Amino acid sequence: MARANRHFIPGGVWHITHRCHKKDFLLKFAQDRTRFVAWVREARKRFGLQVLNYTVTSNHVHLLVKDSGDANSIPAAIQLIAGRTGQEYNHRKRRKGAFWEDRYHATAIESGEHLRRCLVYIDLNMVRAGVVKHPKEWVHGGYHEIQGQRRRNTILALDVLAEAVEVESQEELAGAHREWIEEAVRSERCQREEFWSKSVAVGSEEFVIRTQQMLGIRGRGRDVVSVGDSFLLREPHESYGVNFTPENRPIALENTHYWDDYP
Asked: What pLDDT, on the 0 to 100 scale, is given for residue 8?
């Protein structure tokens, strides 16, 4: 089975997306979404994962994370989270087979304005799906924690998030975040923008070109394109499909993990 494209740049902020196998609604039950969040919390403890935001839907997940500079921190964290979530679900349902569609996809996001927009995009996921009218109505996401409404079992590194979106404090973050959400909902800017989850990098032209250069040989052959006031480093077109071809696979076989392999 081919694997989705992933890349690593030390100290980067990454928007990670992962979809359930065949887009099935394997996370439709609240208890499974809650367990996913619990494993995110555990991964934060074990691997020092800095989680900036998240949303768990019925058939896919979004994670906004900043790595610690360790090339293995994010892969190890996602291996734990995804593996244990699938393992628990299969055990409870007496089910066999893959829980996830493929390897996760990671998009590098530039700090500042682009990160603010990506943050809101993640929060509005269930609004776009028509499930809720406002992200405050969806408990399996980071909205309430950013707003300071969740005191126990917290996950988010709010100090890191505040610095990354260029505000002075967590209090200022909560107020600004509330305004960004309200403006997006009020102006009905909830449409799907695939480039947040299907690009190698999103940001200014300088950021995207620098990301392409840092990727070295893996950055060659990928187009830098503009969409509105943003620039994208695109994956080859073939990687956008459900099935990834072997020719388009940069992930080595030794990096493949199967859900029954987790301890």
From this structure: 65
